[in-house]
Design brief:
By secondary structure, the chain is of the alpha/beta class. It has 25 helices and 13 strands. It binds arginine (ARG).
């Protein structure tokens, strides 16, 4: 049972005879902030003061008189200006726990009205190696899909692969000019990714060479402006002078940043320029930018050679990505890449035109949207379609195929404006009733607080990251095992456990962050044995199993006699309520699509109350058998919620660690 939802329903019945609109009032029923006041707290009497023309304490009493919670709560109490405090009855808690023991879903109900969700996540551009930036979309999207599905919704997870964009133009161009045949024969994907990086490098040199003079000019202008402002006499108007000084400091700050960035670019360029072979190629391929675009256009137009190459490259690139997904235990219902929508693009544009939603502007087809400075371009002057056009076609396809209630896009925050425009355009186009949401997330930072890069300045590859996490996990697992009188594990077993611990740590480390903020990547933090980490939760789970082994407790049999459960110690009661609140935590996750509300629950509520319980309530050494069995059942439920919670985060548990 979802206790909060149940209480809200009961309040709804009571309130609906008093007011028209109950739902904002129901939101004011929350878990109590301090257990002194009980388990839940309803703050809905105070805002009704004006409307009902009564003292809130009286209103609270009216609500209580109408409220039917006698089966689940002690008599509600009114506190302060009119708070209603609710304390669950111990025997009701016990009943619910007993029900959870016998329930595979641990008491988590399925939603009454399931919705259909399309969750668009991971979606890498396939011709490039996956990097650290892909971890976030992949694990956040996977968790949201798992949780929504667990709650009974219909979920279609879609990996919207970038398999049709400029990056293919880049490898086609690179393949034609820079491939090493032997290397390609031996390991095509490695060679393709070398080719990709090499083309990128040449393009970088050219782009930097072109950009530097402009940026230096802008820097000089900025310096002049600073001098100019400095030379001005104070006006005597205190406020104005203060503001001028503040603006000047701000400008100086920006100037310093710009200077730093330019110096960095110059250094990078100098390094590249030191490589004379590279520079010879840069010279030879000075028009690479346009050439790459041409290769892309040719591919899109069905050029035989390019299409053949694309068909040759694509499965190889996808295999490479699949390896990462297999390790991460990530699956999708569909993987319709961008190429899948190619045939629809022209129709999308003409449909927008026909409906009067798009106009020609400077040769391009544009959708002008209220509230945006620039229009959304859906066809370029040269006839090429864009990322946005494909996304519109994708929406059309999804609506036709699944009629979803919601489409979630788990994509990094830099694409915020793209999605704002896309959703606005889709609404104009007729998708008014579907919830479209950009599940935006921040950047993974290195220890220096800047986007995580390798020493050579490349973004960090995802496979290398996984390897490192697993190898560090191996050290932790082995050290722990070596400490035992007789180590438990063979080398092979240590390796399997480390894979789960390392990858679990990485996922949890990401999922436990507020998705909208940047975070600093740290192996130490994410594999820490103590604190809000997967390792800690995995150990907590394994420790419960070890209690059962040591006490030779037959847990299956215990579960069948769950009616013996009792709550005598306050720590037992607190743990019991925490266990029952699992359903609420999952609801919270789906409210604004935030996986960290699940990790928070697991650590802050469940694991912490388990620790207090464990410190105060001996299990194997309990005073009598009834208490021992009851406590063992609490341990078992805790472990099961941890296991189920981690599973929803895509993380496995092991019986022994
Ligand atoms: N492939 C894109 C990128 O790497 C992300 C795609 C996100 N999904 C979407 N429907 N636009 O930036």
């Amino acid at each position: 049972m979802n206790i909060l939802a149940e209480l809200r329903q009961r309040f709804d019945s009571a309130l609906s005879s008093m007011v028209e609109e109950t739902s904002p009032l129901l939101d004011m029923i929350r878990p109590a902030t301090d257990s002194k006041f009980g388990d839940y707290q309803a703050n809905c009497a105070m805002p009704l003061k004006k409307q009902l023309g009564k003292n809130p304490r009286e209103i609270a009493q009216d609500i209580i008189d109408k409220l039917d919670v006698a089966d689940m709560c002690e008599t509600p109490e009114i506190a302060g200006p009119g708070f209603i405090n609710l304390k669950l009855k111990d025997d009701w808690i016990t009943q619910q726990l007993v029900a959870s023991v016998g329930d595979d879903r641990l008491g988590v109900p399925k939603v009454a009205t399931p919705k259909t969700y399309v969750v668009d996540y991971s979606s890498p551009n396939v011709a490039k190696p996956m990097h650290v930036g892909h971890i976030r979309s992949t694990v956040i999207g996977d968790t949201l899909s798992r949780v929504l599905r667990f709650l009974g919704h219909n979920v279609i997870s879609d990996n919207h692969l970038g398999d049709w964009g400029t990056q293919f133009g880049m490898i086609i161009y690179g393949y034609k000019h820079f491939r090493e045949d032997a290397a390609y024969q031996q390991n095509p994907v490695a060679e393709l990714s070398r080719i990709y990086r090499f083309v990128r490098k040449i393009m970088d040199v050219l782009e930097t060479q072109a950009a530097l003079p402009k940026r230096k000019l802008a820097l000089a202008d900025q310096a002049d402006e600073i001098e100019n402002r400095k030379s001005k006499e104070p006006t005597g108007d205190k406020a104005a002078d203060k503001k001028a000084a503040k603006d000047l400091r701000k400008l100086e700050g920006q100037h310093n940043n710009a200077k730093g960035a330019i110096a960095e670019l110059e250094n990078k360029l100098a390094d590249l320029q030191a490589d004379s072979d590279l520079m010879a190629l840069v010279k030879e391929h000075a028009k690479i930018n346009t050439a790459v675009l041409q290769e892309t256009v040719k591919l899109h137009e069905g050029d035989e050679e390019n299409l053949k190459l694309w068909h040759e490259f694509l499965p190889k690139c996808r295999d490479e990505i699949q390896r990462v997904y297999d390790r991460l235990d990530i699956t999708f219902d569909v993987e319709y890449g961008e190429s899948f929508y190619h045939d629809r693009l022209a129709n999308v544009v003409s449909d927008f035109e026909k409906q009067g939603l798009a106009k020609q502007s400077e040769g391009a087809t544009c959708v002008f949207l209220d509230g945006f400075k620039a229009p959304m371009i859906i066809r370029k002057q040269d006839g090429a379609f864009l990322y946005a056009t494909t996304d519109l076609a994708t929406i059309q396809y999804r609506m036709e195929t699944w009629k979803p209630d919601a489409m979630l896009y788990v994509v990094d925050h830099r694409q915020g404006e793209h999605f704002d425009k896309l959703f606005a355009a889709a609404k104009l186009w007729g998708c008014a009733d579907v919830e479209m949401k950009h599940i935006s997330f921040g950047t993974v930072m290195g220890p220096d607080g800047k986007p995580y890069k390798t020493r050579s300045g490349d973004t960090v590859g995802l496979e290398g990251l996984l390897d490192e996490a697993v190898s560090r996990a191996l050290t932790i697992v082995s050290d722990n095992d070596d400490k035992k009188e007789t180590p438990d594990f063979s080398d092979a077993k240590r390796n399997t456990i480390s894979e789960l611990v390392g990858i679990g740590g990485l996922k949890y480390g990401d999922l436990s962050q507020n998705r909208e903020t940047d975070y600093i990547f740290s192996y130490e933090k994410m594999l820490a044995l103590n604190g809000n980490t997967a390792t800690y939760m995995q150990y907590a789970y394994a420790r419960v199993q070890s209690i059962f082994r040591r006490g030779s407790i037959d847990i299956e049999q215990l579960r069948e006699n769950a009616s013996g459960l009792q709550l005598n110690h306050p720590a037992e009661r607190t743990l019991a309520v925490a266990i029952l609140r699992f359903a609420e935590a999952l609801d919270d996750v789906t409210f604004d699509y935030r996986p960290n509300l699940l990790t928070n629950y697991l650590f802050e509520e469940l694991a912490k109350s388990y620790s207090t319980f464990f410190a105060n309530c001996p299990v194997l050494k309990a005073e009598d058998d009834v208490t021992k069995e009851s406590r063992a059942l609490l341990c078992d439920l805790t472990a099961r919620v941890i296991q189920q919670g981690l599973q929803l985060l895509g993380i496995s548990t092991v019986e022994k660690m």
